[in-house]
Design a protein that fits this description.
single chain, alpha/beta, 5 strands, 51% helix
Length: 193
């Protein structure tokens, strides 16, 4: 029996984290953990946790990854975790050397194209489909600032930052990421791209 893989995908909003994770889940039978849904559910059911400080959830991630690593070792089970984790949050991650960690961002985003991309490529259940223009504009500013932060932090903490680009290029890039993850490429190549 071969060892399973445990992958953590962090990065910016609208960078393809969910698309990549769902492809790994559907096509390669990875267990899929969407931290957005998990944390929203925790904060809704336990309002005391809703303090806008997500760094406390790294301990939860470590606990879950520990179990996934045991499943990978004992049963060959693959797992993928996805959220807007930052390199700084995962720099001292307890199992950093035992998992594959990558960060995604649409580094081709700019003020001229990001709003149309948000509206064009969002599914009916994605947040850009049901929020106000004011909220979209606030998120555009956040996304562009986060791209700058990711470039700096990935270099500082020695993580891969992959430009998922936009439009038709994105599908090719995501498929290439999948191939590299399955081959273990990102596990050994810890430089910013």
């Amino acid at each position: 029996m071969s060892l399973g893989k445990v992958i953590i995908i962090g990065g910016n909003k609208r960078a393809g984290k969910t698309t990549l994770s769902l492809k790994l889940h559907k096509n390669y039978q990875f267990n899929y953990y969407n931290f957005d849904m998990l944390l929203d559910s925790l904060e809704e059911s336990l309002p005391i946790l809703n303090d806008k400080n997500d760094s406390k959830y790294i301990t939860l991630l470590e606990s879950m990854v520990k179990r996934s690593l045991l499943d990978a070792q004992n049963y060959g089970i693959n797992s993928v975790y996805e959220y807007i984790f930052t390199p700084k949050e995962l720099a001292n991650f307890k199992y950093r050397d035992d998992v594959q960690i990558i960060f995604l961002a649409n580094l081709d985003a700019n003020m001229a194209n990001i709003e149309s991309d948000l509206k064009t490529y969002s599914k009916r259940y994605d947040w850009p489909s049901f929020v106000s223009d004011e909220d979209i504009n606030r998120n555009i500013e956040w996304i562009l600032k986060q791209n700058e932060k990711l470039l700096i932090e990935c270099k500082e903490y020695h993580f891969n930052l992959i430009n998922t680009s936009r439009g038709e290029k994105r599908d090719k890039i995501i498929n290439n990421i999948i191939n590299n993850l399955l081959e273990g490429y990102y596990e050994d190549n810890c430089t910013s791209k």
